[in-house]
Write a structure and sequence with these properties.
Blueprint (H helix, E strand, L loop, with lengths): L2 H11 L8 E5 L4 H12 L1 H4 L2 E8 L5 H16 L4 E5 L2 H8 L3 H20 L3 E3 L4 H13 L4 H4 L5 E3 L16 E3 L7 H10 L16 H16 L4 H30 E4 L3 E5 H5 L3 H15 L8 H13 L5 E4 L3 E5 L3 E6 L22 E2 L4 E4 L4 E9 L15 E5 L7 E4 L6 E2 L9 E2 H7 L4 H4 L4 E4 L4 E4 L3 E2 L11 E9 L2
Parallel strand pairs: 1-2, 1-4, 2-3, 4-6
Antiparallel strand pairs: 5-6, 7-8, 8-11, 9-10, 10-11, 12-16, 13-14, 14-22, 15-22, 16-19, 17-18, 19-20, 20-21
Helix pairs in contact: 2-9, 5-6, 7-10, 7-11, 11-13, 13-14
Length: 496
């Protein structure tokens, strides 16, 4: 394989470099980064680019790491390439952010390269990931249960802001990470180094199989190729390319669907139209939940598929107030007409037909016109119609809309009113045979968030007995019986 020719063809196909680009090259001193630096240095005039080498000492390997840093600095100087060498305490960062050493080193390295690029006015950062690295990455993501986003592996080119670093590179809007070696096998990289007299540094930690990636590289992948599929690593890369295209298409459709279902967004919450979201394809429902979480937690590298599935299940089947916990303190909450994905401390305003907010004892009862339409605070209406049994709509007994109720009209004869919950409120929930129960207990069992419970309207008759906890449960005494002649058909709704 002609590594230089293959690399340049791949870079051109993927649009990695532009004429006049200043490129920061991440150089560890190993074979991949030496090969990359040498090819770009040899082709700099052909590509029309300027190079700047950058090396980060992770302060993990002591004297060996110090020697690596000196090696890179000396090599860059001998080739006339400007070079930045710095050190960052990765073990300390790992403890601070409670992350594994491998992941911390990755994030710290990219943050360092971004800092160097911004200081040097570079628009591209080139790193030496090869084809074998890609196979390992895809396999690692597959074992973790990743979706399309993970199974596409590493991308040939990606915006640095999309890497979700420890420190967000805000000014780096046009800063891209490129991987020119991504289709070159490791064996070809090593052969190139030998052919050109490049003597890489040896990192002993690459042999340590206590590191997850090293175990995949030295044990699992060879086993799979030996026992099951001789070209398994190559097949992984082929699958990753297919999935990358599928994921791009999904993102395009997702972004259009996002516009259709989004109501509003802020730094603390994203609110969607629940009915429209529920009509989307399941793949788009998952994608929108995942994007909403990552919008609130930009440094979250991945959203576990199990969290997404659990949240989607709640959003599809949950009643008002149902919640699902998502990563990093994000909560999904089902509203009357909205789906809210927000910080767990965010207190969303009730979007169901709410009578009052805050302290219910300060809210005055609202007389309900029977029959007729009564205007509640805000854009909420309650409509009451009195019908004979023969006039009832077909299927009324199977009504599943919580904001419709069918009550025996006799309970409304002496007048009814709406009020909010008060301490000690009790009623006889339908289906419990007349046993009394605290309204607060009903709402807790229904998983209605505490901040919404005082907003739930109660339909109360003249003697103070609660006939309907609106949206949740009617009273046993208000049920339509065999001898009921007239039925009160009641609807709560939000106007507009």
């Amino acid at each position: 394989m002609d590594v230089q020719r293959e690399l340049l063809a791949f870079a051109q196909r993927e649009g990695m470099f532009r004429l006049g680009d200043r490129v920061v090259v991440g150089v560890s001193g190993g074979p991949d980064s030496l090969c990359l630096l040498h090819v770009l240095w040899s082709s700099r005039e052909r590509l029309g680019i300027d190079l700047h080498a950058a090396h980060l000492n992770h302060l993990i390997r002591g004297d060996e790491a110090d020697a690596d840093a000196r090696f890179v600095a000396d090599l860059a100087a001998s080739w006339g390439i400007p070079c930045t060498v710095e050190a960052r305490d990765v073990p300390a960062l790992a403890r601070e952010h409670r992350m594994a050493i491998e992941e911390t080193a990755r994030r710290a390295r990219y943050a360092f390269l971004a800092d160097v690029a911004l200081r040097e006015g570079a628009t591209r950062i080139a790193v030496g990931h090869n084809a074998d690295d890609q196979s390992e990455t895809v396999l690692m993501h597959w074992l973790r249960g990743a979706g399309l986003a993970g199974l596409r592996g590493m991308l040939p080119a990606i915006r640095m802001a999309d890497l979700r670093l420890i420190v967000k590179p805000g000014p780096a809007a046009d800063l891209w990470l490129v991987r020119p070696l991504l289709e070159i096998p490791r064996s070809e990289v090593e052969r190139y180094c030998t052919q050109h007299g490049l003597v890489p540094r040896f990192d002993r930690s690459n042999l340590d199989t206590t590191f997850h990636r090293n175990k995949l590289r030295h044990e699992l992948l060879p086993y799979l190729e030996r026992e099951f599929r001789p070209r398994f690593a190559e097949n992984l890369r082929r699958s990753a390319r297919v999935m990358a295209g599928d994921y791009d298409l999904l993102c395009t459709v997702r972004d259009e669907a996002w516009k259709q279902v989004l109501l509003f967004e802020s730094d603390l919450a994203t609110t969607f139209d629940l009915a429209r979201w529920r009509k989307l394809h399941i793949a788009l429902q998952r994608a929108i939940v995942r994007r909403a979480v990552q919008r609130l937690r930009w440094d979250l590298r991945d959203v576990n598929a199990q969290h997404v599935e659990a949240a989607v299940d709640v959003a599809l089947g949950g009643t008002v107030g149902a919640q699902s916990t998502l990563p990093r303190g994000v909560m999904l909450t089902v509203g009357y007409a909205t789906l809210i994905i927000a910080d767990q401390h965010y207190v969303p305003p009730p979007d169901f037909p709410a009578l009052c907010q805050g302290h219910s004892n300060e809210s005055r009862p609202l007389a309900v016109t029977v029959p007729g339409v009564t205007t509640m605070p805000g854009k909420v209406r309650i409509e009451v119609r009195i019908l004979s049994r023969s006039e009832l709509p077909a299927g009324w007994q199977d009504n599943t809309d919580p904001w419709w109720a069918f009550l025996d009209a006799e309970v409304l004869e002496r007048g009814v009113h709406l009020r909010c919950r008060q301490a000690g409120d009790r009623f006889c929930p339908f289906g419990l045979g007349g046993r009394r129960k605290l309204v607060s207990e009903l709402l807790v069992n229904a998983k209605v968030p505490a901040w919404w419970r005082d907003s739930v309207p109660l339909l109360v008759r003249a003697d103070g007995e609660i006939m309907w906890v609106c949206g949740w449960r009617m009273d046993e005494r208000a049920r339509v019986r065999e001898d009921t002649c007239q039925v009160a058909m009641i609807r709560l709704y939000v106007v507009g």
